[in-house]
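Researcher: Good morning. I'm working through a list of sequences from a screen, and I'd like to move beyond sequence-only analysis. For each chain I'm collecting a predicted structure so we can compare shapes side by side. This is the next one on the list. No need for commentary yet; just the structure.
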Amino acid sequence: MRRRIMGRYGYLILLIIIILAVDLYPFFDALRLSFFDKNLMNPGGDRFTGVSNFVRLLTKEPLFRPALWNTIVFTIGSVVFEYLIGLGAALLLTSRYTPMKNLFKALVLLPWAVPIAINSLIWKFMLAPNYGFVNQILDRLGAHDFLQMNWLGNLSLVMPVVIGVNVWRSFPFYAITLMAGLATIPRELYESAQVDGASWSARFWHITMPGIKNVSMVVVVLHLIWTFTNFDVIYLLTGGGPLHATEVLPTFLYQQAFELFDMGYASAIGLFILIFLVVTVGPLYFRANAKT
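Model: Good morning. Structure tokens for this chain:
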């Protein structure tokens, strides 16, 4: 009987063990730590403090609101432009009039294929003042004033630049996903609409967009979550600077946990990120999954 049960439910039991080990235990441990004053520089000095970490974060932390605002700006800016560029690339790569589509598909995938760390470091080198590739190209084109431009050190330009780097890296995911959605739209709909005299814009708004509505919602919701919790792009490009101009909640959490070793406070920040995403993006996520 035991062999029969293990043979039938063995994989289910293994899955439950993996979920407990990988998901639930770290979550509940972080939840527990968020109610404690725990600093790795003071081993054995753990002290239960209730909700004081959350009170400190929401009312006393001067970097909290700027970091939250930067996170929202970074997330919305990235997702909007990723979707628009990805949709444009998908339309071009599925058009019958685009030559060498296989070659362009491979080229579009390159930014997504390169690891994030390498992507970010390459862009950091390219955006460097004086010797950076971007400034050198602008200088050759006659824009000599840009030769000394410090793109990642300018308070008014650094966030758009970081968003641009993230968009360049992530739009291929949108392009490939939306291409799959476009492939499910029957070609007969376009032919019938063209026979009826519908313009390109009419076909786009009344056939293409409704046809990819569900896949668009799924990919946008997923990227809202991924971008809101994105750490590596900003950390490798700017480290949250200059003067916290690109400080986002994930980099702020990293600073508290692994530079100041305040694990209780860092756990409270992580729990806030989770709650914020559940409240704001959670309904969209469940709605998107209900339609697929």
